[in-house]
Amino acid sequence: MSLRFLTAHFAVSPQIRVEDLPALKEQGFTAIISTRPDGEEKDQPSVADLGVAAEKCGLAFAYIPVRMGATPDAHSVTVMRRTLAEMIGPDNTGKVLAYCRSGRRASDLFELASAQTEEPAPKSQRFDVVVVGGGAGGLACAASLLRRRPELLVAVIEPSTEHYYQPGWTLVGGGVFTARDTQRSEVGLIPARANWIRQAVTGFKPEQNRVELGDGSEILYDAMIVATGIKLDWAAIPGLTETLGKNGVTSNYRYDLAPYTWELVSKLEEGTALFTQPPMPIKCAGAPQKAMYLACDAWRRKGVLGRVQVAFDTATPSLFGVADFVPALMNYIKGYSIDLTLKSRLVAVDGEKKIATFERTTDKGTERVERKFDMLHVVPPQTAPDVIKSSPLAGQDGFVSVHPDTMQHTVFPNVFAVGDVAGTSNAKTAAAARKQAPVVVENLIAQLSGRKLDYAYDGYGGCPLTVERGKIVLAEFGYGGKLLPTLPGWILDGKKPTRLAWFLKEKIMPRLYWDFMLRGRELFVRPAKKHEG
Q: Which Gene3D superfamilies does the record match to this protein (predicted)?
């Protein structure tokens, strides 16, 4: 491997491979930057493989692709400068290697970044399609779009460098998965032909076809897909943020807290365990009780369930929004001796005293109830992200106002939404985003082409309710609570707990997510035209 040092802390090289990383670590390198897009040559190692391997070696990794024969644009130069500042550090302790096919692009990018002694004036870039958000819905749309129209200039705007399989956090909290099983580097998931803009969007100007970024620059577009997700409003419950992750207070709605859930479940042998659910809408409406059922099953297996008093306080008027699935769930509520209280909302937490305060609505009015706990699993209230609520895109509920079938904005025809941020009445689940993505992409292409929008989303949402370790009630339904099972009833009856559904949740669904949904491979989610139903 041929290295060329441009400074004492920065070197460039031709393409590296996974097996080179341990030697680079031994030579004192602390970080790797890839400036080469995936797919230039057949035997080229993927950025995903190199990024994951680098992280395992303890090397930081960044991806700033520059197309062959192109001069690095202003955005890439700015990102390079900031990345170098982070990786080398103010005390010059870092040592960085950047690579491409020959090292030339890495060198050019470094020289341009080093020449900028002052912040350049914010500039605008233009793309055919801008995807705001690199989560499940955003990546699925970007990948599906580029599979259909590889010639389109597509940008994905996403500031995070890590991506999480959030449906897996229930199983982390149940001791089935490790947290690491649910995490991958964002760099390996961005489609190879997409431009990754590592910035946060700070404003929308849909009347001008522009979005504003945190660095002061603007992005122009012909069409836009909004996929920013939903905001978890932890601060809405007084006392909660101060005690999360300690004093027995946890939540499977956060990557770093799901392991604490399993720690609490494993250690608790007597006392009171409280589980809560806020008002709708929330992502995955079944997740609050999934955590409870898995905990109860673990205590039952250990023989201590009778010494643990379990209560479920939900702000909703029923246990589950679709009545067909309630009987099976109620059997488990009774079987685990769970104290179920409907229309009960968590309004305060005192972690040190281990007291949870609820506001309950009864026939006599509203009352406040304080309950002692040894373990408290909290699901926070959830709203549209602030940047959406304050934008022209928002409807009355704060979410992006779209037509529920086409997912097209109700005012701006070249804007679409996917996933949790869409102001639709479907369940906010990854399964819903997976079904929405091809509909959004087909309709966006039609809009760009001046054709009518033929494809319709039916409100599908999938919620695998983990009622015990090894069994799941697989709730699949659409708008109006209509049952929409993927498999025929003689194979899998979604209204009953089955081991097949558990197998799908544990073994199949993660692969569908990582290898199919995020890659634009639309297995079982072929978009239907409106007249097809």
A: FAD/NAD(P)-binding domain, Protein tyrosine phosphatase superfamily
HEC readout, 138-207: HHHHHHHHHHHCCCCCEEEECCCCEEECHHHHHHHHCCCCCHHHHEEEHHHCCCCCCEEECCCEEEEEHH
The beta strands (E) that lie in 59-135 are given as: 60-63, 96-99, 124-132
Cα three-residue angle 29-32-35, rounded to 5 degrees:
145
Q: What is the CATH number of domain 4-120?
A: 3.90.190.10
Tokens of 507: 């073994």
Q: How many CA atoms lie within 13 A of 216 on its CB side?
A: 7
**Which tokens is 282 given?**
């929330």
Integer Cα distance of 69 and 81 in angstroms: 21
Q: Spell out the domain ranges in the chain.
A: 4-120, 235-380
Same fold across 4-120 and 235-380: no
Q: Which residues are catalytic?
A: 284, 463
Q: Mean pLDDT in the chain?
A: 93
Provide the pairing of β-strand 344-350 with 339-341.
unpaired
Kindly report the CATH number that applies to the domain delimited by 235-380: 3.50.50.60
Burial track 39-70 (b if 16+ CB lie within 10 A, e otherwise): eeeeeebebbebbbbbbebebbbbbbbbbeee
Q: Identify the DSSP state of 122.
A: P
Residue at token pair 């008093």: 309
Q: How far is CA 158 from the centre of its chain?
A: 11
Note the pLDDT tens digit of each residue in 30-78: 999 999 988 788 889 988 889 889 988 999 998 888 888 777 887 788 8
What percentage of the chain reaches a pLDDT higher than 70?
A: 98
CB contact set of 297 (below 8 Å; sequence gap of 6+): 336, 467, 468, 469
Q: Is 75 helix (H, G, I), strand (E, B) or coil?
A: helix
DSSP letter for 293, please. H
Q: Is the Cβ–Cβ distance between 144 and 522 less than 8 Å?
A: yes
CA distance 56 to 72: 29
Instruction: State the angle between helix axes of 104-115 and 74-88 in degrees (0 to 180), rounded to the nearest 10.
Output: 80
pTM score: 0.83
- What is d(CA 169, CA 232) in angstroms, rounded to the nearest whole number? 15
For residues 284 and 420, the answer to whether their CB atoms sit within 8 Å is no
DSSP H/E element including 145:
helix 136-148
